[in-house]
Amino acid sequence: MSMDPTVVVHPDPEVLAAAAAARLVSTLADIQARKGSASVVLTGGGTGIAVLEQVRRSPAKNAVDWSQLDIFWGDERFLPADDDERNEKQARQALLDHVPVEESRVHAMAASDGEFGDDPDAAAAGYAEVLAAAARSSSTATGAVEVPTFDILLLGIGGEGHVASIFPSSPAAAETRSTVVAVRDCPKPPPTRLSLTFPAIRAAEEVWLLTSGEAKADAVALALAGADEMSLPASGARGKQRTVWLIDRSAASKIHTLRR
Ligand SMILES: O=C(O)[C@H](O)[C@@H](O)[C@H](O)[C@H](O)COP(=O)(O)O
């Protein structure tokens, strides 16, 4: 069980994205120096993609051996593969198409015009099997949850406290067995998505929550004050070894008023 979260407050969204990118590069390089390879779970959303763009711009980016990096997603918009709203497409444009990743180690969630057609439940089950197969082939994944070792799992946060596509008081927030679920009627468009669940998220070694702006201040403060994860999913996003909140001053502006 990880200790209290580490909270790092940055002056503004631009510094947050650049600092988070630097932290990600150096952390992945450290993990690869120790283990030979590393794994990261990417997030969609403006902050998550801004971090990837900053990694692309970083002169230090090739401290990471991109061919020895397993890449997964925490959630995906269930849309055709070439839709600009796809998290995978945005991540490729921001970073992955600009570094020498090993494509067999890039594990995108299915698109709605992919191998499972427009069946999000089948697509979710398919990704759960990708994770289970990766866990079986990994010498280090020892947890009860059928996912590989996620070294760093990145998450953005919605204004009402969602992480990945786990929205407040949703079936996904209550899911305790499946590692990946289909999510329908999401308040944040598009309405149909695929998402890791809390068991999968909490199997990660480190969970990093990344957000900025006044609109997130209540969710950040409530989560750090220990709100119930059903009503405030960000509260349930914890890593086995470490939980890190990388936020800007605006998103941190209500922490002191709500922390009990
Ligand atoms: O697919 C998605 O939309 C994301 O995974 C979602 O969880 C996002 O990270 C948050 O909604 C924050 O998004 P912003 O950083 O744009 O506020």
TrEMBL record:
InterPro entries referenced in this protein's UniProt entry, alphabetically: 6-phosphogluconolactonase_DevB, 6PGL, Glc/Gal-6P_isomerase, NagB/RpiA_transferase-like
Pathway noted in the entry: Carbohydrate degradation; pentose phosphate pathway; D-ribulose 5-phosphate from D-glucose 6-phosphate (oxidative stage): step 2/3
GO molecular function: 6-phosphogluconolactonase activity
Glucosamine/galactosamine-6-phosphate isomerase domain: residues covered: 11-245
A biological process from GO: carbohydrate metabolic process
Swiss-Prot/TrEMBL keywords: Hydrolase
The reaction(s) this protein catalyses: 6-phospho-D-glucono-1,5-lactone + H2O = 6-phospho-D-gluconate + H(+)
Catalytic activity, EC: 3.1.1.31
UniProt xrefs under Pfam families: Glucosamine_iso (PF01182)
Function field: Hydrolysis of 6-phosphogluconolactone to 6-phosphogluconate.
Similarity comment text for this entry: Belongs to the glucosamine/galactosamine-6-phosphate isomerase family. 6-phosphogluconolactonase subfamily.
Classification via PANTHER family: 6-PHOSPHOGLUCONOLACTONASE
Designated name of the protein: 6-phosphogluconolactonase
Lineage of origin: Bacteria, Bacillati, Actinomycetota, Actinomycetes, Pseudonocardiales
